[in-house]
Fold this protein.
Amino acid sequence: MKQLLQIELFKIFRRPRTYISFGIVTAITFVIQLAMLTDGKSYMSFALQGVNEQFDIHGNMINGYFITYIILQTLLIQIPLLVALVAGDTLAGEATLGTLRLLLTKPISRNQLILAKFMSSFIYTVLLVIWLAIVALGLSVLIFGRGDMVNIKSDTFILILQNDVLWRYAAAFCFAMLAMTTIASLSILLSVFADNSIGPIISTMGIVVVLTILSNLDLPLFNHIKPYIFTTHMIGWKGFFDDPVPVRQIGISALVLIVYTVAFAGTTLLVFNKKDIKS
Amino acid sequence: MIRRSLNTILILLCLAVQASAADANELFNTLRRKIFSVQDYTADVKMRISVKYMRIPQLAGTLYFKSPDKMRLERHGGLSILPRKNINLTIRNLIPAGNATVIDAGEAQIGGKKTRIIKVIPEDDKSDLVLAKIWVDETSMVALRIETATRNEGTLTMDLEYGRYISNGLPDKLLLTLDVKDFRMPKGMTMDYTESRPDEALKDTKGKKGTIQITYLSYKINTGLSDKIFTPEASEP
């Protein structure tokens, strides 16, 4: 199994597209950092116009912690695409190349193969989020410095003291890993049905975009189904920046994401075991 | 005989009212002299802001004040938050500085202490302050509560507790209750994860009231603070 995982990881990290994801994360982070460096004060005064009417806030508000939050919020839509870019290719890519049938002639079970592909995709996802943490948090703190963090919700202004921020980011990035693992599982599931990798990648993105819009639409029609949609829970990392931290709600979100991940993985195993591999 | 008696009562009544007004005036002027004797101070403080739309932990820092209206909170690398017209955080700015009409409004108990209530109406028509109601502890000659009606900021109430600095008329603890507006951003922009819960500290306040509580740990009084301390640049890192 270890050797199988090594082979799968080799396949992932041999491909240039894997590094494109890391490059895109870096580029988006740079763009946001540059924008905030040049025009951060305007952004902040717009965001805080309601608060500024009554309160004077002084100090380094546009600090590394605040910028990281903005980056994470912005990358909410892009990161699933980057995860799907690799995870969606795991089975469909093999099918396109015609290596899947050859692979299954080796003395490994289909379950082992799927498990290895899941684990390699998970490792890729974790590394991508760790890279995001390095360039978003590490670089932002280096450029903009540290300070108390301001978090703006639709009806609340939250101030988090700087010595209370880092554990929140550690927890938020761990949660982001879980959310992205759900996306990876969905991509692998869709990958079982396809013979080329474009289909699962586009389908994953389509599902994520549609469900994200649905999760954020404040319409009574959708309010009943929102708690059951995984995209509603993908923003659970934000809960760590709330006051008080909604521990129960975050736990529920984590549970929903785990259930979806297991369900996607289980379905993948079921379908793949019954699938007639022709290429 | 009856007519003479009535005249005497009327004269005595007029004299009593006049004496009461003179007493209230004297009381207000004595209190004002004491409060205005503090030209500047530097104080180590702990501040708790409880506003409906704000979640702010207790802030510790140094509060600088220079008369008549300069104030700054230094948080040693952290963000400082003060009401926009932070002048209201000092008792000095809730008391009219110019000529004013003072009316004796009776007595009341505050925290078990007997106080005299005086109502002060500034004679300056342009003053933001419309009316100040002051509960004065005549024994220590300090204000225990001030309620002000302002033109632009609604009603402000300040409750004060004194300790070591009572001789300077400076409180150890101050609780300011003020009117606050709502804060709203489009949900599509902020993509909230959870609904906000009401602040426990505000469950007793009616309507849109907020409170700011300051605990003064120590004061350095009349040290001759420089104006540079209060420039915006001094607040930036």
Notes: Helices of chain B lie at 2-36, 187-190, 232-235.
